[in-house]
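Example 5.3 — Nucleoside/nucleotide kinase family protein
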Amino acid sequence: MTSYPLDVLTARAAALADLGPRRLLGIVGPPGAGKSTLAARIVDAVGPTAALVPMDGYHLAEAELHRLGRHDRKGAIDTFDAAGYVSMLGRLAAAGPETVYAPAFHREIEEPVAGSIPVPPEVRLVVTEGNYLLVPDEPWSGVRLLLDEVWYVDLDEEERLRRLVARHMAYGRSQVEAKARSYGSDQVNAELIATTRLRADLVVRLVDG
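Solution (predicted C-alpha coordinates):
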Protein backbone atom coordinates (compact mmCIF):
# COMPACT_ATOMS: atom_id res chain seq x y z
CA MET A 1 0.00 0.00 0.00
CA THR A 2 1.21 3.48 -0.86
CA SER A 3 0.22 6.84 0.63
CA TYR A 4 -0.70 9.40 -2.01
CA PRO A 5 -1.25 13.15 -1.71
CA LEU A 6 -4.55 14.34 -3.12
CA ASP A 7 -2.99 16.16 -6.07
CA VAL A 8 -1.43 12.93 -7.36
CA LEU A 9 -4.74 11.08 -7.17
CA THR A 10 -6.59 13.99 -8.74
CA ALA A 11 -4.12 14.07 -11.63
CA ARG A 12 -4.63 10.35 -12.18
CA ALA A 13 -8.41 10.78 -12.17
CA ALA A 14 -8.19 13.74 -14.58
CA ALA A 15 -5.98 11.73 -16.92
CA LEU A 16 -8.54 8.93 -16.87
CA ALA A 17 -11.31 11.40 -17.76
CA ASP A 18 -9.23 12.71 -20.65
CA LEU A 19 -9.44 9.30 -22.29
CA GLY A 20 -13.16 10.11 -22.82
CA PRO A 21 -15.85 10.32 -23.85
CA ARG A 22 -16.83 9.29 -20.32
CA ARG A 23 -14.92 7.21 -17.79
CA LEU A 24 -16.06 5.58 -14.57
CA LEU A 25 -13.81 5.48 -11.51
CA GLY A 26 -14.71 3.28 -8.55
CA ILE A 27 -13.48 3.86 -5.02
CA VAL A 28 -13.95 0.95 -2.64
CA GLY A 29 -12.96 0.07 0.89
CA PRO A 30 -14.31 -1.06 4.26
CA PRO A 31 -16.62 1.16 6.33
CA GLY A 32 -14.74 4.08 7.85
CA ALA A 33 -11.68 3.85 5.58
CA GLY A 34 -12.30 7.26 3.98
CA LYS A 35 -13.61 6.33 0.55
CA SER A 36 -16.52 8.81 0.65
CA THR A 37 -14.18 11.63 1.61
CA LEU A 38 -11.70 10.74 -1.12
CA ALA A 39 -14.43 10.44 -3.76
CA ALA A 40 -15.89 13.84 -2.89
CA ARG A 41 -12.45 15.49 -2.94
CA ILE A 42 -11.62 14.00 -6.34
CA VAL A 43 -14.89 15.28 -7.82
CA ASP A 44 -14.41 18.73 -6.28
CA ALA A 45 -10.86 18.94 -7.61
CA VAL A 46 -11.71 17.79 -11.14
CA GLY A 47 -14.59 20.25 -11.29
CA PRO A 48 -17.89 20.41 -13.19
CA THR A 49 -16.92 17.71 -15.69
CA ALA A 50 -16.97 15.18 -12.83
CA ALA A 51 -19.93 13.78 -10.88
CA LEU A 52 -20.25 11.62 -7.77
CA VAL A 53 -22.75 8.74 -7.80
CA PRO A 54 -22.41 6.73 -4.56
CA MET A 55 -23.48 3.10 -4.29
CA ASP A 56 -25.40 4.04 -1.12
CA GLY A 57 -28.26 5.33 -3.25
CA TYR A 58 -29.10 1.68 -3.86
CA HIS A 59 -29.85 0.83 -0.23
CA LEU A 60 -33.16 -0.98 0.00
CA ALA A 61 -35.86 1.13 1.63
CA GLU A 62 -36.50 0.79 5.36
CA ALA A 63 -39.89 -0.84 4.80
CA GLU A 64 -38.39 -3.42 2.46
CA LEU A 65 -35.56 -4.24 4.88
CA HIS A 66 -38.13 -4.85 7.62
CA ARG A 67 -40.23 -7.01 5.28
CA LEU A 68 -37.18 -9.11 4.41
CA GLY A 69 -36.02 -9.35 8.04
CA ARG A 70 -32.68 -7.70 7.21
CA HIS A 71 -33.02 -4.35 8.94
CA ASP A 72 -30.60 -5.19 11.75
CA ARG A 73 -27.97 -5.96 9.08
CA LYS A 74 -28.47 -2.78 7.06
CA GLY A 75 -25.31 -2.20 5.02
CA ALA A 76 -24.72 -5.91 4.38
CA ILE A 77 -24.31 -7.00 0.80
CA ASP A 78 -27.88 -8.32 0.52
CA THR A 79 -29.42 -5.04 1.69
CA PHE A 80 -28.72 -3.25 -1.62
CA ASP A 81 -30.38 -3.31 -5.03
CA ALA A 82 -27.26 -4.59 -6.77
CA ALA A 83 -28.94 -5.19 -10.12
CA GLY A 84 -30.31 -1.65 -10.12
CA TYR A 85 -26.86 -0.27 -9.36
CA VAL A 86 -25.29 -2.22 -12.22
CA SER A 87 -28.01 -1.01 -14.56
CA MET A 88 -27.38 2.62 -13.59
CA LEU A 89 -23.63 2.25 -14.13
CA GLY A 90 -24.36 0.83 -17.55
CA ARG A 91 -26.44 3.88 -18.46
CA LEU A 92 -23.69 6.17 -17.21
CA ALA A 93 -20.98 4.29 -19.11
CA ALA A 94 -23.00 4.53 -22.32
CA ALA A 95 -22.61 8.34 -22.18
CA GLY A 96 -25.81 9.06 -24.04
CA PRO A 97 -27.14 12.52 -24.89
CA GLU A 98 -29.59 12.69 -21.99
CA THR A 99 -29.15 13.60 -18.34
CA VAL A 100 -29.14 10.50 -16.15
CA TYR A 101 -30.67 10.84 -12.68
CA ALA A 102 -29.25 8.66 -9.92
CA PRO A 103 -30.59 8.10 -6.40
CA ALA A 104 -28.89 9.37 -3.24
CA PHE A 105 -28.97 8.01 0.30
CA HIS A 106 -30.09 10.52 2.92
CA ARG A 107 -28.71 9.54 6.32
CA GLU A 108 -30.96 11.98 8.18
CA ILE A 109 -33.98 9.87 7.15
CA GLU A 110 -32.08 6.60 6.50
CA GLU A 111 -33.69 6.28 3.07
CA PRO A 112 -32.62 6.41 -0.59
CA VAL A 113 -34.28 9.15 -2.64
CA ALA A 114 -34.68 8.61 -6.39
CA GLY A 115 -33.75 11.24 -8.96
CA SER A 116 -31.45 13.13 -6.59
CA ILE A 117 -28.19 13.25 -8.56
CA PRO A 118 -28.19 14.63 -12.11
CA VAL A 119 -25.40 13.49 -14.40
CA PRO A 120 -25.59 15.65 -17.54
CA PRO A 121 -24.05 14.49 -20.83
CA GLU A 122 -21.05 16.83 -20.51
CA VAL A 123 -19.77 14.90 -17.46
CA ARG A 124 -16.61 13.07 -18.49
CA LEU A 125 -15.76 11.41 -15.17
CA VAL A 126 -18.22 9.59 -12.93
CA VAL A 127 -16.83 8.65 -9.53
CA THR A 128 -18.75 5.98 -7.66
CA GLU A 129 -17.85 4.77 -4.19
CA GLY A 130 -19.09 1.93 -2.06
CA ASN A 131 -18.31 -1.26 -0.22
CA TYR A 132 -18.92 -4.00 -2.74
CA LEU A 133 -17.59 -2.73 -6.07
CA LEU A 134 -15.09 -5.60 -6.39
CA VAL A 135 -17.23 -8.52 -5.20
CA PRO A 136 -16.91 -11.22 -7.92
CA ASP A 137 -20.32 -12.82 -7.36
CA GLU A 138 -23.34 -11.97 -9.52
CA PRO A 139 -24.92 -9.49 -9.87
CA TRP A 140 -22.08 -7.49 -8.26
CA SER A 141 -19.57 -8.86 -10.77
CA GLY A 142 -21.16 -6.57 -13.36
CA VAL A 143 -19.91 -3.52 -11.46
CA ARG A 144 -16.22 -4.24 -12.09
CA LEU A 145 -16.85 -4.80 -15.78
CA LEU A 146 -18.26 -1.27 -16.12
CA LEU A 147 -15.57 0.58 -14.15
CA ASP A 148 -12.45 1.78 -15.96
CA GLU A 149 -10.42 1.87 -12.73
CA VAL A 150 -11.04 0.88 -9.13
CA TRP A 151 -9.07 2.20 -6.17
CA TYR A 152 -9.12 0.42 -2.84
CA VAL A 153 -8.80 2.74 0.17
CA ASP A 154 -7.07 1.10 3.12
CA LEU A 155 -6.52 2.34 6.67
CA ASP A 156 -5.03 1.14 9.92
CA GLU A 157 -7.71 -1.03 11.52
CA GLU A 158 -7.68 0.70 14.90
CA GLU A 159 -8.07 4.13 13.30
CA ARG A 160 -10.76 2.88 10.92
CA LEU A 161 -12.84 1.52 13.77
CA ARG A 162 -12.36 4.70 15.80
CA ARG A 163 -13.65 6.77 12.89
CA LEU A 164 -16.53 4.40 12.30
CA VAL A 165 -17.70 4.56 15.92
CA ALA A 166 -17.49 8.36 15.81
CA ARG A 167 -19.53 8.45 12.61
CA HIS A 168 -22.29 6.30 14.06
CA MET A 169 -22.42 8.54 17.13
CA ALA A 170 -22.60 11.64 14.93
CA TYR A 171 -25.77 10.21 13.42
CA GLY A 172 -27.43 9.77 16.78
CA ARG A 173 -26.36 6.37 18.10
CA SER A 174 -25.14 6.03 21.66
CA GLN A 175 -21.53 5.00 22.22
CA VAL A 176 -22.66 1.49 23.15
CA GLU A 177 -24.82 1.21 20.02
CA ALA A 178 -22.08 2.67 17.83
CA LYS A 179 -19.48 0.20 19.07
CA ALA A 180 -21.88 -2.73 18.74
CA ARG A 181 -22.59 -1.80 15.12
CA SER A 182 -18.96 -1.07 14.23
CA TYR A 183 -17.55 -4.25 15.77
CA GLY A 184 -20.57 -6.36 14.80
CA SER A 185 -22.36 -6.23 11.44
CA ASP A 186 -20.02 -3.55 10.04
CA GLN A 187 -17.00 -5.70 10.82
CA VAL A 188 -18.54 -8.70 9.06
CA ASN A 189 -18.97 -6.49 6.00
CA ALA A 190 -15.40 -5.17 6.31
CA GLU A 191 -13.99 -8.68 6.34
CA LEU A 192 -15.85 -9.52 3.12
CA ILE A 193 -14.66 -6.30 1.48
CA ALA A 194 -11.04 -7.04 2.45
CA THR A 195 -11.14 -10.25 0.40
CA THR A 196 -11.67 -8.15 -2.75
CA ARG A 197 -8.61 -5.92 -2.24
CA LEU A 198 -6.41 -7.72 -4.75
CA ARG A 199 -8.89 -7.01 -7.55
CA ALA A 200 -8.24 -3.25 -7.36
CA ASP A 201 -6.07 -1.33 -9.81
CA LEU A 202 -4.61 0.79 -7.01
CA VAL A 203 -4.44 0.40 -3.23
CA VAL A 204 -4.10 3.76 -1.53
CA ARG A 205 -4.02 5.58 1.75
CA LEU A 206 -4.83 9.27 1.46
CA VAL A 207 -2.52 11.72 3.20
CA ASP A 208 -3.02 15.45 3.73
CA GLY A 209 -1.28 17.84 1.38
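Remark. The helical segments are 6-18, 35-46, 62-68, 82-94, 141-146, 157-170, 175-183, 185-194.
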